[in-house]
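Summary for the steering committee. One of the milestones for this cycle was to obtain a three-dimensional model of the protein with magnesium ion bound, which we needed before selecting residues for the alanine scan. The sequence and ligand used are listed below.
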Amino acid sequence: MSNRRRHPSVAGSEGLTLTAIRDTRTTRPGAASPVADGVRRRDDAALDAPVTEIDGVGPKIALKLERLGVLSIRDLLLHVPHRYRDLSRLEPIGRVRPGQEVTLVGAVAAVRRQRTKSGKPVVVVEIADSSGKILCVFFNQPWLEKQFRIGQSFAVGGRVERWSGRPAIVGPEWEPLVEGSESAHSGGLVPIYPATEGLSQRALRRYAGSAVQSYAHLLGDPLPPGTRSEEGLPSRPDSLRCMHQPASLEAVARARRRLALDELLALQLWSRRKRAAREALLAKSLAAGSQAQARLIDSLPFDLSSAQARCIDEIAADLDRDRPMSRLLQGDVGSGKTAVAAAMIARCVGAGGQVAVLAPTALLAEQHVTTLKRMLGPLGFESFVPEYPMPMKGGPVLARLVGSMRPAEKAAVANAAAAGTIDLVIGTHAVIQEHVRFASLALVIVDEQHRFGVMQRAELPTRGAEASPDSVPHLLIMTATPIPRTLALVLNADVDQSIIDELPPGRTPVKTVWLQPSERQRALAYVRRRVESGGQAYFVYPLIDESDTIDARAATVEHERLASEVFPDLRVGLLHGRMRSAEKDAVMSSFRTGLVDVLVSTTVVEVGVDVPNATVMLIEGAERFGLAQLHQLRGRVGRGTAESVCLLVGDARGANSAERLEAMTRTNDGLELAERDLELRGPGDYFGTLQSGHVERFRFARDARTDVLKLAGRLASEILERDPALLKPEHAPLASLVASFEEGVARA
Ligand code: ADP
Ligand code: MG
């Protein structure tokens, strides 16, 4: 499948490498009129001025705002409310029911400070209106007692529960109501901002209000007025104004949609231009390697699936051109991407080019070394021996390069790669990028595993490109993360895609069972039976939160318990991201060789591990994972011929939990699960896994609906068709949006 779309090359980008494109940021395209450009620069300067320009914001408050990531006036405008309190639809207090999300307004009838059984301080505030009373309960914040004066009016919001047998909101959002100060322009909607200690909601509203009033109009609109009216979109300044001072929730939704569109459009235009620039460069045609490729395919111990064969053809056709390929090979875990990679390595080496295979971890690099050695052996590949850097038989030479190697060994590999005596280097991104310059690198294969998206690819090494802009390596990225079509159009606009959409024949699909936590004993008994009859098992412990440390601790505690109480007679290993890589490797290799029966781990095991004898996986806290990740994890089993089982232990309390866990038991199709996940949870995960520097760039896109994703793709195509380099005056603001996006990427 080729969604290739070619533009004449972008102004000023001819002959540049991917890395060098970043440096074009000073030559802003779209600077058609010096006057317009001057105005824009002045507006930008005003927007980039520090927040202290705002009335009432001094250095002290500026420091507090800084904690929210708000430094400039532009930041302040973009610091939008995360929700709104709807004062126009207040619930009478007497009518609220447990389970409801409510906003209530009432007067303080009583304030008590007490202690829980365990001695924690609790402040209980009784709020009343003419219809009834409700308790607001605050744990561990004794100082709040002084904030509530009897008779004073407050707005409170949150989920109604029962506490001491009465309706209550535990840890509500709360705010004193000051007569006449609210909702002057808010139509009853009061914005609630992401806040920080020492800054009241009221203060944030006031600062945002004055930023909106004096500066919003300077933001300008990246979309030409024609396009805006054709698509019925609000302007960018109006959209931000509306976020801070909304007339209605519908208007907020329209504004969010518009702001998401701007982010997605910037991404689209940037990645398509990046692609056009890359396509303007030259690469080595690998057509001469077609016989070597054919020999490799013949020597495989299996027949290719028809999907593998099709992907090989698609990739080979690209490699035969003298333009650098940028292609993504997507295939579910176990679909046989490695064989496809091996065929391309054979083609490249057969044509006299060097290949680098980059893996995200040392573990995976070692696995590729083992597999590729086996696959390429019949073509006469031999391993590089640092002590004897000249090959013995004159066949192609394969080398491994990972961090744990001695410096002298690394240097030997690097020297041989630079001299051209090594044909294939397999190692981790970091190590190869740091150490190796190639004599004639023609193909880079990146095993991306669960990372994905154009933003990560922007960070890929393009080693070789700087050295010889007239011979840039072809790039093949392998990913096991299926991505829904609508998202692929937006997130993969910089690459072509080949998809292996069937598993090799003879696989028994993994059987997936969802169990309640109360059924855990059954699950453990089942695992024991499987292990006693010769199998091995994975136990995966949940993402507790975003922190590696806490995850590692959970896995460590569980490992202890399983090893000493549940399976004292079995060999139980532990693997987590906080271990040193040598430790991890040791554990993995004992698991692979069968010295460990049960491997307890965090999600690190997700990354491409292949142990065919492991036929059972138990995932604890399964409801905490997204479908994509559950599916990735599940792919670790079902790699051999024995029937594999995946046990999901989790409850259905969280949003969509039941739907997600059921979907897992229903299908093994990664793409179908990804589509379902997109429906259930939105595209947040796809942006959420970005490096922190990039996440901010997609604060609105994270919640974007499919229609906005599509619109961004369509508009980008239309705009570039008319004006590939964004040089027309009406595209000047768009060009500067793209330029600042590019700057942000280069900085992140
Ligand atoms: P992926 O990297 O896509 O997860 P692998 O390349 O590791 O998958 O392949 C998984 C297993 O399937 C390997 O043991 C591989 O040798 C085997 N395999 C690959 N292609 C085929 C095929 N066409 N027929 C049978 N087995 C295959
Ligand atoms: Mg693989």
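Key point for the committee: DSSP finds 26 helices and 22 strands in the chain.
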